[in-house]
Specification:
This is Aminotransferase class I/classII large domain-containing protein. GO terms for molecular function: pyridoxal phosphate binding; transaminase activity. This protein folds into 3 domains: about 120 residues, Type I PLP-dependent aspartate aminotransferase-like (Major domain) (Aspartate Aminotransferase, domain 2), CATH 3.40.640; about 130 residues, Aspartate Aminotransferase, domain 1 (Alpha-Beta Complex), CATH 3.90.1150.10; about 60 residues. It is an alpha/beta fold. Helix 2 links the parallel strand 1 and strand 2. Helices cover about 45% and strands about 10% of the residues.
């Protein structure tokens, strides 16, 4: 299976059906079988938001071509622009001509910064797809401990509202700080509304408009201490575009931008005008950034709990293995008992963390 890019106008990205029609014809003319479309909304790396009208039109067109659609909303809770017209697909999927031709995806990894949970959601009205996913779950199930933790975590509405408010505020501060300095450095970019990154045009710094020149610039920037993602690695069709992630600490972002200034001044290219020195630390990044710092102790407490539970799981696994070697008569009962004990501890600690009732565990 291969993924192919459907090009969009980077000045104003949209889900242009004519572009998808053109791409579909291109592959059919070459006898390439096309099975579906993937929509990332909010988009990665562009950071733009596609409104529900665009999504509905594209999904209906795809169904008319007997294509399936995967809608990935992994950044759904990271839309930081209050003017963004974002609605989750789950709010309007019933308006589609063929909802059963669309599968929705979301996970904990981006919005909550816990990729190690390996916890995600797939929503589909297709009985066939749900049956297949049910069988696949046997081979890669979500840990019962993670499921239990997730239930407790998502049940604390007050904490979640405070967290989302803090997350969006800090993402907006970091984004505005980043693009402010892009403007100072005269680096074009795609205005973002959500997600963790900015897609920026460094093509004027290329020795030639080629993928080879793009990778050469990437190496030079990386050697200078700034790690960007080349557009070529994200199937961008225009050389010179790079993704910059701003979802880091404010100190890291300030230092990264300072290094970018230094690098752009040292680029040997007649198209680049000299860039004056700018006092990075006088940006708006420090203004009201510390909203919601009371979240940090709970976050650190959660990490400790998770680490202890991983250790407990290892112990249970070793004990179960020993029981299996000795006999299988009471194994099922004993395993269930061990797992229930661990589960009870996780419930207790998760509840303490989420409701601020921290207790020292012996």
């Amino acid at each position: 299976m291969s993924l192919y890019t459907v090009y969009t106008n980077l000045e104003k990205p949209t889900l242009d059906i004519s572009a998808f029609e053109k791409a579909l014809k291109y592959h059919h003319d070459r006898d390439n079988m096309v099975k579906g479309i993937v929509i990332i909304n909010p988009h990665n790396p562009l950071g733009v938001v596609f409104d529900q009208d665009q999504v509905i039109r594209l999904c209906n067109w795809a169904a008319s071509q007997n294509l399936y659609v995967i809608i990935d909303e992994i950044f759904a809770n990271s839309v930081f622009d209050p003017k963004a017209n974002f609605k989750s697909f789950l709010c309007y999927y019933k308006k589609l001509a063929r909802p059963d031709h669309v599968a929705y995806m979301w996970g904990f990894s981006k919005d909550y910064g816990v990729p190690g949970f390996k916890f995600a959601v797939i929503h589909s009205t297709s009985p066939t797809l749900r049956a297949v996913l049910g069988k696949l779950e046997y081979y890669s199930p979500v840990s019962c401990l993670v499921q239990d933790f997730a239930v407790k975590f998502l049940a604390d509405n007050e904490w979640l509202q405070n967290y989302h408010k803090t997350l969006k505020h800090r993402l907006a501060v970091h984004y505005n700080f980043t693009v402010k300095h892009f403007k100072e450095m005269r680096i074009p970019y795609v205005p973002a509304q959500g997600g963790f990154c900015v897609f920026a045009d460094f093509s004027e710094m290329l020795k030639s408009k080629t993928s080879k020149a793009e990778l050469e610039l990437w190496r030079k920037v990386a050697t200078g201490g700034v790690m960007l993602t080349p557009g070529d690695h994200q199937k961008c069709l225009k050389p010179g575009w790079f993704r910059l992630v701003f979802a880091c600490t404010k100190e890291e972002l300030q230092e990264g931008i300072r290094r970018l200034y230094k690098l752009t001044r040292n680029i040997d290219n007649p198209n680049i005008e000299p860039i004056r020195e700018v006092k990075i630390l006088n940006g708006s990044i420090d203004e009201d950034w510390d909203i919601g710092d009371d979240l940090l102790p709970k976050y650190e407490h959660a990490k400790k709990i998770i680490k202890r539970k991983v250790d407990d799981i290892k112990i249970v696994a070793e004990e179960c293995y020993d029981m299996l070697k000795e006999g299988v008569v009471e194994v099922e009962h004993n395993i269930a008992g061990h797992l229930q004990n661990v589960k009870d501890v996780v419930k207790e600690k998760a509840e303490e963390m989420l409701h601020g009732q921290s207790k020292r565990s012996n």
